[in-house]
Request: fold
Amino acid sequence: MLELRGVTAGYGRTIVLDDVSVVVPTGDAVAVMGHNGAGKTTLLRVAVGLLPVRAGTVLLDGEDVTRLRPNARVRRGLGYVPQGQQCFPQMTTMENLQLITTSKAEIRGVLDTFPALTELLSRRAGLLSGGQRQQLAIARTLLTQPRMLILDEPTEGIQPNVVQEIEQVILGLTQRGDLSVLLVEQHVGFALRSTGSYYVLESGRITAQGEGGAGALDSVRAAMAV
Ligand SMILES: Nc1ncnc2c1ncn2[C@@H]1O[C@H](COP(=O)(O)OP(=O)(O)OP(=O)(O)O)[C@@H](O)[C@H]1O
Reply:
């Protein structure tokens, strides 16, 4: 379980998150939605330890990790896929995976989740499509064996015709049951389909929260229209 409790954080003199609390229960998937600049990425950076809090606490499986560095949080089971399909472009798909593990069994395991990558193992990551690179970025993070996966706008910058492919992959991950997922998304319909509960973040504050599913669409749209 990941819990952000009363978190305030920002950059320089600017406060971006103001007393924000979010809970991702073990095995569940939670979406955070909000307009551009609402503070979604900042929230994830705080969760991962890339940005210190000014007030509040970050708990991972009940342990206070607020002062722990990102690598210590990764060792405790946190996996982070930042925006932008980040991989090493000059290296092949396989080399990108082998930077995380040389275990053939583990790589085979992750390729079962991303069969589209199997055909692309010898292709340089820089030559993959955005959707393929996103799958590689998620696959690399899964190889670190996270219990809590944090995804920052995985469908951003992906061609509309492959967004659905990414959505299916993420849906599979959120339904695995052994993985908790915190997902930041602008595609409200997709975010609600793939998660059990949601938060709306606007101007650094949580303005709505509830259970996910198609029934929540109107409430979320109303909260985001304000
Ligand atoms: N490194 C930084 N230094 C200063 N201000 C920043 C920095 N990163 C983000 N901000 C500001 O913090 C605010 C929140 O940004 P953040 O990226 O968290 O929002 P977001 O909801 O993820 O937006 P988007 O959907 O556009 O990614 C914005 O006003 C942004 O300009």
